Amino acid sequence: MYNILKQQLQYLPGVGPRKAMVLASEVNIKTVGELLLYFPYKYVDRSIIYKINQLNDKMPFVQLKGRITSFSEEGVGRSYRLEAEFSDQTGSIRLVWFQGVKYIKKKLKTNTDYILLGKPTLFNFSYTITHPEMEELSNPNREIEILGLHPVYHTTEKMKRTNISSKFLENLIVGLFKQIDLNTIDETIPSDIRSRYHLMPLAEAIFKTHLPTSMEDLPAAQYRHKFEELFFLQLGILSCVRRRSVKYAGFRFDRVGCFMSSFYREKLPFQLTGAQKRVMQEIRNDLFSGRQMNRLIQGDVGSGKTIIAVMTMLLAADNGFQSCLMAPTEILAEQHFNHVSSLLSNMGLNIALLTGAIKNSRRKTLYEQLKTGEIHIVIGTHALLEDTVSFKNLGCAIIDEQHRFGVEQRSKLWRKNQSPPHILVMTATPIPRTLAMTLYGDLDVSIIDELPPGRKPIQTHHVYENNMNSVYKLVFNQLSLKRQVYIVYPLIKESEKIDLQDLEQGFETFRSVFPNSIIGKIHGQMKEDEKNEIMQRFTSGEIQILLSTTVIEVGVNVPNASLMIIVNADRFGLSQLHQLRGRVGRGADQSYCVLVTKRKLSENTLKRMEVMTTTNDGFLIAEEDLRLRGPGDIEGTRQSGLFINIKYSNLAHDAEILEDARQAAGYLINKDPGHTSSQYLSTWNRLSQLRGETQDYSVIS
Ligand code: ADP
Ligand code: MG
């Protein structure tokens, strides 16, 4: 059957091959169906017509209705222009064209009614409109078409040069809707879900989005598009989860053996918090269930996630499996390795470190020992992901600071075994629920919402850079209490040498202000052993003041450090500031964070500083971050590997729609798990179609 929606654009009247090519290359629209999904980004209200005697020069664009009474050509060379007198019953104004005069002269006539759109400017007591948009009122219906709401479409420079203006697209779409039977646009969401969530039919929503009769039409139509987008996203995620659970059995860890029990009895250095106990129980339920675990642990900085990782790995060892812990930086991997090795010393467990810094010969031995199962626990960086790393029986893979990794990396760990290992991912950048449901929608979520006892909230101050003296005073105080200090400088890219100058200068300044203190510096361009040496000297307490770039951002744990100074804090996002601040406040004493900025700040930056000085709650900060920056910029969304580009919805504002969409998707999966019901066939078809075409989201099948 002929389907107009599949028709190539070049065959539409007025389009032709050249325009069709530009539409395809600029905005990826090739067919009529795709064009109908190219929605306006705003609307202009052309319902009001002013009289000439009502004009004032404060008015933005206005519409007038009248006739041209005379033309005249004025000036020569660059000041050459066409002028016309335009009148209605109440007065007259001047129209001016500098460009396209030949065309205008041919097109415009005297003694014909026009509706004009333009911006009036007052000059010598009379009004002029330059380059007005003119619509001839050739028949009585024309006026009705012109008045009312008009869509405005985004056009690129290249489109404009090819005469694809917003007006052109509007006319094209108006023409199409005259031809197309709306019934040819297939519905994608089944009727039971549509009625439950009061969704407008797709065809109607598409029509009303282009050509609303009033602003009241829009919310329901836009709601439908957002719901559609989020619904299919969730349907995709949840069907994946379902397929996974049917296809793969998980290793059953049903034994709490001597590793775990003797550790818990003899080595655990503190009492677990209530939240840690709860999360541990959730993990144990997963491991005992026989299903493969895919769990995300969200816990604010310092909430004690490491110990959860350690105990999970002990359960793996108790059940005869190997496990790995992957961290985003070498410093952190090394720190974890030292910490875990000392926690689990003399237990007969073989623990190894694998990072890019490990030399070749040692590496070869490591690979061998992982393959034979000699190593029980391996801790490392991305180096773990390399194909050369294989295990005897990897039972559990843990990723620390997940937000630093992409989905691709998570799935690489998955494939390390014939049967996938249990996966635990941990993040200290709390993510708002909406983002978690989308980015990590396939994971079960555990939340550690309690800090270990005795922690005092960090006091945060915002200081302008001309007031460094007060900062030095604070440094001096902390040093005299035998505490340590971090000073962090932003580095946009680790390779940018210019940024490093700030750090070098700061280093000189602090050396002259604190001549009797031991000051160290650390940045990404230093050699691994140099970095490690500096970190060790700071951890041991020898270095009192550490100047650094963001290499220390993630996970570093030096409880005696009590002051974090962030220079040029305006260059950091909220989540990153919160992460950095989390490097202090890890012991029982009062800790401080100072945000140093220049004086002139944008409103948005001031708001960020205010959020930081008023709260320590990572979840609140994450919500604010999402609101201030929009979801597109949040770390992790770009490499998320979602099969739909989120276009219509905004995860900061559409949380409710997302909840509904996920619920609806869950309902459909339960109702028709085998994809056998004819009622839902077109929805499943739509899903597989979307999966195939990641870039090209069109809701018409
Ligand atoms: P994060 O969640 O940021 O990774 P860590 O696991 O590094 O936090 O823990 C932060 C600090 O708190 C560490 O020094 C750790 O030993 C300590 N800690 C963790 N859990 C507890 C607890 N239940 N009681 C006391 N201290 C704890
Ligand atoms: Mg950590």
List key phrases describing it.
701 residues; seven-stranded mixed β-sheet; seven-stranded parallel β-sheet; 24 helices; globular; binds magnesium ion
Describe the protein's topology:
Layout: H1 16-27, H2 32-36, E1 42-45, E2 62-74, E3 81-88, E4 91-97, H3 101-107, E5 113-118, E6 120-123, E7 126-130, E8 133-136, H4 140-146, E9 149-152, H5 157-161, H6 166-179, H7 191-196, H8 202-210, H9 218-247, H10 258-267, H11 274-289, E10 294-299, H12 306-318, E11 322-326, H13 330-343, E12 351-354, H14 360-372, E13 377-380, E14 394-399, H15 407-414, E15 422-427, H16 433-439, E16 444-448, E17 459-464, H17 468-480, E18 484-488, H18 497-513, E19 519-522, H19 528-539, E20 545-548, E21 561-566, H20 574-581, E22 592-597, H21 603-614, H22 618-629, H23 655-671, H24 681-692
Parallel strand pairs: 4-7, 10-15, 10-16, 11-13, 11-14, 12-13, 14-15, 17-22, 18-20, 18-21, 19-20, 21-22
Antiparallel strand pairs: 1-9, 2-3, 2-5, 3-4, 5-8, 6-7
Helix pairs in contact: 8-9, 9-23, 10-12, 21-22
The structure holds adenosine-5'-diphosphate (ADP) and magnesium ion (MG).
Helix content: 25-40%
Largest sheet features: 7 strands, mixed
Structural class, from helix and strand content? alpha/beta
Using only CA atoms, what is the Rg?
32 Å
Uncertain spans, ≥5 residues at pLDDT below 50? 633-640, 694-701
Please count the beta strands (DSSP E, at least 2 residues each): 22
Estimate the mean pLDDT confidence: 88
In DSSP terms, counting alpha (H) and pi (I) runs of 4 or more, how many helices?
24
Shape: globular
